[in-house]
Amino acid sequence: MQRQHSQGTPGTVRTRDGRELFYMELVGPAGGGPATVVFEGGLASTRSYWALVQQAVARSARAVVYDRSGLGRSAPDPSGRRDLPRLAADLGDLLDHLGPGPYILVGHSWGGPVVRLAAAARPGRIAGLVLVDPTDEDCDLLFERSVRRQEKIRHRLALLLARLGLFGLLFRKVTAALPPDAAADMRAEAFTVAVMRTMGAEQTAIEPDLRALRDHPPALGDIPVTVISATLPTPGMSPRARESVNAAHAYRARQSPRGRHVHARQADHMVPTTEPRIIVTETERLLGAIAERTVEG
pTM for the whole thing? Predict the structure, then answer.
């Protein structure tokens, strides 16, 4: 008998324009719980990156990971358009397929703006957001020209290393932390030239997307929002940049009437593998609040 994958049962969903997205869902012995938790990764991040958090959350809820278009096992986007509204719409299509909710959306890095925009589109089905060291438009440093130059340099280097089959070596600590099957999937699927091209398409839209967010912040109403900030040094990020990023995180949490800002004391930017427990704890806190409201109702 074939052993179940550590990330659960595979499935596919069609977007509104016919693209196929690949996802995996995991439900523990306790059943589906009070909500479905859906995880959204950062730039070039496949579903495998969430394996540690997903397994722990699945003990108390249905936990779903997926690959955005052009990543992992999901079909590429022939339009070439990978801006934030497009990414959020794809996430919305996945949620439509999974059911009526309620949902807790967990977004890391660039996944933070994605889940915020998707939540604002249909706030009635969203029971909470967990933003994990998210990109945030309130961080002025993100608009500096030097950041765009660094992005272009990193992308060219990533493409070169992917062509040489060496890009995955930069993420050996990440894959080493994952369950063996998820690590094997990540090594096979996350460091390819095709994925780096998708990352480039998403990177191209970052600055205009951030300006659009600043001009028109997604309206989240009273949806509970938890923002998790990393604290340990991250390669390529100066102490000044970390201070600015975390200040933006504190501001984001204050914008919600049920906002919460917490610090991951053992994590650099790669929180899902360096301190997964804090994400699990904050997600379970939201799940507990949903369960309490259900009992009271």
Answer: 0.96
